[in-house]
Amino acid sequence: MTQQHPARTEGRNQRSRQAVVRLLRERGTLSRAEIARAVGLSPSTVSTLVAALVADGTVLERPEALTPAGGRAGRPGTAVMLNPAGGEAIGVDFGYRHVHVVIADVTHAVQIARSAPLPADYDASLGLDTAAELVRSAVRDAGTDPARILGVGVSLPGAYNPHTALPNSGLPSRWSGIPVAAELSRRLELPVLADNDANLGALAERQWGAGTGFDELVYIKLHSTVGAAFISNGRLTRGAAGGAGEIGHLVMDANGPLCRCGNRGCLESYVGLPQLMRALEPGYGDRITLRDVITKAWQGDRGCIRALSEAGKTAGRAVGMLSTVLNPAAVVIGGALAQAGELLLGPLRESAQAAGLPPAGTSLRILPAALGDQACALGAVALVLGQAGQTPMPTVV
Ligand SMILES: [Zn+2]
Fold this sequence. Notes:
The chain is of the alpha/beta class. 42% of the residues lie in helices and 19% in strands. It is built from 13 helices and 15 strands. Strands 6-5-4-7-10 form a five-stranded mixed beta sheet. A five-stranded mixed beta sheet has the order 13-12-11-14-15, with helices on both faces. The chain has a three-stranded antiparallel beta sheet with strand order 1-3-2. The longest helix has 25 residues, at 302-326. The protein is elongated and about 75 Å long. The relative contact order is 0.12.
């Protein structure tokens, strides 16, 4: 009798287990015999693996799936499927200088959160390699069973076309033409879905944050770039090519500063984080951070109060215009700038009221986001859970 090395046997069992789970994730409900054929293992090995998966709750038995009503009469054995009540989803949020990873369960409880810095203007392959390594270490450190991972959601800083599964090339970007989801999926051997950061922030805030209960919702991300997402009739509206919500390039002043998009006076030129910080440099130096600005403003620094208030007023004019067009019930303001709270939101509300037509202007609720800097990563989790049928999510149209 040949003696197998225990560690080697254990490794092979783990790989077989993952192969079975991956197959069920892709094909839904299957019989043990179908699994055995598809993964090339003996029926007895598959029976042992499935028994262990049923015992730990990863997989459920579905006797009714093999009844004549299911159109599968005559095949012996009980079908199995992944347990919809279990599993973890991974959210990956690519920022301009970092990547953030969370692992959350189906109730969105975050089990682990990790960030890694990236250089300014990093290229896609460095971003993807860093993200893949961060995901692997987070999975290891959280003790997550890889077989229970439902999938990975990715938040991208910029428009994403769901039809081509490519970032939009409307603006110069290191992500243009890169099949981000496929590339990360290849690195991690897990299913990966992607979307832009504003859409995912909106998804998370509506699912679990300040936008809960609003079917007509606008989410605005005031961050390094400025974007919005529109939820109408409970559905995320993405436009013909995924480009809806690029409000950072609404022209607020045709004679304003030149923008990277080629226009002048775009909203982003006034309220984008880099532009806002650059405007403060002459008075405060180039080491000042947004957190410093907010702290100084609360302490009464007139320059910092003015900078945040003007950003709020300009963003408010855009919110007023959007509310005239879309008549949302609520606008949720997220992104780093929202950390300024009422210093920004007060002037924003005032100018939104002034710029919007009643009743859109008067009935509008403008709320601070509730999920902070985790919003986009949690939205990426919501994307995966929605796809896995774990949680109702705004339908993507
Ligand atoms: Zn622009």
